Amino acid sequence: MNVEDKVTELISRASGVPVSEIRPEAKLSDLDMESLEKLECVMSLEDAFQIEIKEDDLWRLKTVQDVIDAFRRVMPSLS
């Protein structure tokens, strides 16, 4: 599973929004993902890919694409 699919799947699980309705440009806040849900989602992704996102970067994540890009920066092989 690639990073886009995994991010979309976990955001869907955290937000309750169907995978088919999640787009890269979607704002996490529009998907009813507040700080706690965002943190849980990122922690699940960190576990899935065995990497860590810096805390400073975590608070900059506003869209689905931001989450995807953050994981690609940490682990370029996910591209």
TrEMBL record:
At the top level of its lineage, which domain of life is listed?
A: Bacteria
Q: Name one GO molecular function term.
A: acyl carrier activity
What parts of the sequence cross the membrane? none
Pfam entry (one):
PP-binding
Locations listed in the record: Cytoplasm
Q: Name one GO cellular component term.
A: cytoplasm
Q: Which UniProt keywords apply?
A: Cytoplasm, Fatty acid biosynthesis, Fatty acid metabolism, Lipid biosynthesis, Lipid metabolism, Phosphopantetheine, Phosphoprotein
Tell me where in this chain the Carrier domain is found. Answer: 1-75
**Residue numbers of O-(pantetheine 4'-phosphoryl)serine PTMs:** 35
Keyword Disulfide bond carried by entry: no
Q: Give the pathway listed in the UniProt entry for this protein.
A: Lipid metabolism; fatty acid biosynthesis
The UniProt PTM text for this protein says:
4'-phosphopantetheine is transferred from CoA to a specific serine of apo-ACP by AcpS. This modification is essential for activity because fatty acids are bound in thioester linkage to the sulfhydryl of the prosthetic group.
Q: What does this protein do?
A: Carrier of the growing fatty acid chain in fatty acid biosynthesis.
Recorded family membership: Belongs to the acyl carrier protein (ACP) family.
The name of this protein is Acyl carrier protein
Q: What is the protein's species of origin?
A: Telmatobacter sp. DSM 110680
Q: Which gene encodes it?
A: acpP
